[in-house]
Design goal:
Layout lengths: L6 E5 L8 H14 L5 E5 L9 H14 L1
Parallel strand pairs: 1-2
Helix pairs in contact: 1-2
Length: 67
């Protein structure tokens, strides 16, 4: 991939509704796929209304720790 290219990688929002370990694993897989200085991490379709805030906080912490 050329150095001037950035990538936007999306985590499936439904992963925030399930098992925390599965969400963290999927998050790490995305984070490891592209250098952090060229990666825009986000959710594919936003946060679902039934999502626990603790899962969002965990996701944010994992992404921040990687960058």
């Amino acid at each position: 991939m050329p150095d001037q290219v950035a990538v936007q990688g999306n985590l499936l929002n439904a992963l925030l509704l399930g098992d925390e370990a599965a969400m963290v694993s999927a998050t790490h897989k995305i984070l490891m796929s592209v250098p952090c200085d060229r990666h825009i991490f986000n959710l594919g379709h936003g946060i679902l209304p039934s999502t626990e805030i603790s899962m969002v906080e965990r996701l944010v912490n994992e992404v921040r720790a990687a960058g």
